[in-house]
Each structure stands twice: as C-alpha cells, then as structure tokens.
C-alpha cells in the first residue's frame, strides 16, 4: 500500500473532508509540501499505532498552543481532537499544562482559541468551577449557573464530580446543575481521619448554605445515593425531589474487604476489580473517556482515602429510614449492576411511599458514566413530572 493511500486515510479520519481540501489548496501552490504532508506527516508519522489518533491530536493541540502564532491551525486541530474523542475538559487541561512549560500568554491564547472553536461547533459550555470550604475543608464545586431550579449531583466512591459531566450538559438546559467533590475525593483528597456518612450529609447541607440554596433536587449514584438518603433523613425540609441511582440501603461485607485491599495492596491493584464491577465488558473494550477517567481516578487516589470512603459506606443503615422519605423519589437501576442489583433497588422503592422505579437495560453500575444520556433523560422526566 502506498504512503499516499495510507496518508489520505489518516488525514480523512482526523480532519474529514477538510483534510482533502487542505491538501488540494496546498498542492495548488506547492505540490512538494502537499506530497510530504500526506506521505510523511500522515502516511508515515500519524499512521504509526504507537500513539492513537486521540493522543496525537491532543499532543498536536498542546504543541500548537505552546509554539504560538499558529492559531488557525490550532482551531483546525481542536475540532479534529474532538472528532477523535478528546473531551472539552481535556483541551482545557492541556492549556493549563502548557502554562507550566510555555508560559501564561501562550496558554491563555490557546485557551481562548479553544473556547471560541468550541462555541463555533456548538459544544456545550464547560460548567464554571470554584473552591469552597465545607465544614472547614476545601472542595471544588462545578456550577452550570442559570435561573433553573437547583439540582445537586453526588458522585460514586472512587471518582469525583466529573463523573456527571456528560449528563450535566443535558441537564443544564433546564436546571442549575451543581456537582462537588466528596471528602477524600478529587480536590478534597488527602484526608487524615475517618469520616462518616453523616459528616458527608452535613457537608451537603453546608454546600447549600454556602450557595444560598434553601431547597434543591438531589440525585446521587452509589455512595452519592447513600449520602443523599442520609441527607433526606437529616434535612428533609431542604429537599425537593430525590433520585437514587444504583445505590443501596444496607451494608455489605465486601465494603470492608475493599477498604483493606486498598491499604494492603495499593491502588493499582484496585483497577481491575473496580472497573470490571463498574462497567460492561464492551464499555471497557471501547476504552473511551468514561473508562479512562475512572481508571485514572482509582490510580491517583490515596489508599487511605479509599479505605476511609469504603468504611464510611460500611456504615450505611438507611433501610429502616426509607419509609420516612416521603418526598417524590426516583430509584433508577441498571440491568447488569452487581453492586446495587435491580432486585435491591426495586425492594428499596417498595419501602418508600412516593417512589418510582425505573431500570436501564443493558447497563452496569457506573450508569452516569456508561449511559449519561439515558440517566439525564430519566432525571428530566422525573423532575419535570
């Protein structure tokens, strides 16, 4: 196979029809540059499988931002990066990384050009973030803003607020969507003592106080759903509607086992058992952003935070409180969830006087990562009912 044929294949995969147009435009002036662009740049370098197309485009965006003066090409490659599976948040992170090695002026130019390109492509804006202090501890909050009713999203154990980002883009069209990092997760990592589910529910109440929210809808997945239940028990007057997703109301022996495993074996050893529990095999095989993000979250976690969180979850005792949760509630299960099975979720719904049960077919535990559009639609249907 000729280098030209290989190069055109790669060029089209990355830039679509625009790539062919660029080759033709360059060829009209310099056939030499057009030929080397296709045969060497794309037919030789880009075609090598040591780096995937996604990784190459993310590198290209960072390099163009770092050298400066290549804003037209930067815009082209921001679009190409999105086409190859790079997330908008990763492009922002690339600009932040460039600031360390190439300085703030070029990083800012890169950031603004990225923002403008995303807007031209009608990509949903990234929620603003700010650091807040909850009960004496810093955490990071993302807030879509707007005039809609507030909807607070609480995340699963081992990840952070970003697990909701794909669903947020859909939910924020109607609601003010807020997500934050739990103790021992994300920006709030590095705990030095055990904490409880009540501590986490108190943090949620403090968050609402800091943001000036008298009431809010709350949706939580797994650990986030348990915290939401404790919050509903402790502060029922602050809650409008409640959505519990792939969660539980009783402790399991596995929680303490996982806590000890993190401390004794380290976080790398937790990747395989966690990801295979969280995602379907086909999702793992595709290895798109949700899986890459979850893997990196586990790997970067402190073993102590991991153990603290599992031991907090081992304190779940909300089963007897479920009949007292009288606000409108949605219990959303995943068909192949082994941690919070549909049977468990259906039984929980049966104990709640104003609950609706729904199930997502062909999905596993990390529902907001694996099927964000279906989760968002289920929440929109429920909250708007």
How do the helices and strands line up, and which of them pair or pack?
Blueprint lengths: L2 H13 L1 H13 L1 H15 L7 H15 L3 H13 L4 H15 L1 H17 L7 E7 L2 E7 L6 E5 L10 H7 L4 E5 L16 H15 L4 E6 L1 H12 L4 E7 L7 H13 L5 H8 L2 H6 L2 H12 L2 H11 L15 E6 L7 H10 L3 E6 L6 H4 L1 H12 L2
Parallel strand pairs: 3-4, 3-5, 5-6, 6-7, 7-8
Antiparallel strand pairs: 1-2, 2-4
Helix pairs in contact: 1-2, 1-3, 2-3, 4-5, 4-6, 4-7, 5-7, 6-7, 8-18, 9-10, 11-15
Describe what this molecule looks like in 3D.
This protein is an alpha/beta fold and 385 residues long. It contains 18 helices and eight strands. It has helices spanning 3-15, 17-29, 31-45, 53-67, 71-83, 88-102, 104-120, 165-171, 197-211, 223-234, 253-265, 271-278, 281-286, 289-300, 303-313, 342-351, 367-370, 372-383, and strands at 128-134, 137-143, 150-154, 176-180, 216-221, 239-245, 329-334, 355-360. Strands 1-2-4-3-5-6-7-8 form an eight-stranded mixed β-sheet, sandwiched between helices. Helix 16 (342-351) links the parallel strand 7 (329-334) and strand 8. The longest helix is centred in the N-terminal third of the chain and has 17 residues, at 104-120. The protein starts with a helix and ends with a helix.
